[in-house]
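Section 3.1: Structural characterization of target chains.
Under the original work plan, the team committed to producing a structural model for every single-chain target entering the pipeline before any wet-lab resources were allocated. The record below documents one such target. The sequence was received from the expression subgroup and is listed exactly as submitted; it comprises 120 residues.
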Amino acid sequence: MIKACVGEENFIDMTPNRSNNYCCGGGGGFLQSGYKDARLEFGRLKDEQIQATGASYCVAGCHNCHAQIHELSEHYGAHYHVVHLWTIICLAMGVLGPNERTYLGDDLKEVNVFHPESAM
C-alpha cells in the first residue's frame, strides 16, 4: 500500500522486515510507563535500523510507534520525519488538510493541499 502511495522509487524497506522486523520499544503501554531511559535504550536498535535505510521518512502504523520513533529520531540525532500511515494515504488521495501536516517536512507540506473553503 505504501509503495502505491509514494511510488516504488521512493520506498525503502527495512532489513529485517515484515514479521522479522524490530520493535520500536514503545508499545504495550511502555510509552506511558515512565521508564523513558529504558524505553529509548530498547528503541536504539529500531533507530539504527531506520537510519540504515537512509530514508528521510519513516511510516508508522500506530500512534505508540509514531510517538516512540519520533522521539528516537530526535534522541539519537537522526531527525528523520515520522508520519502516520493514514497521513501518507490521505496525502496520496489529495485529501490531507493543511492542519494535518505537522510531521511532514518542507518537501511535502504543500503537496496536494486541500483547502475546504475552495471546495464550495
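The radius of gyration is 15 Å.
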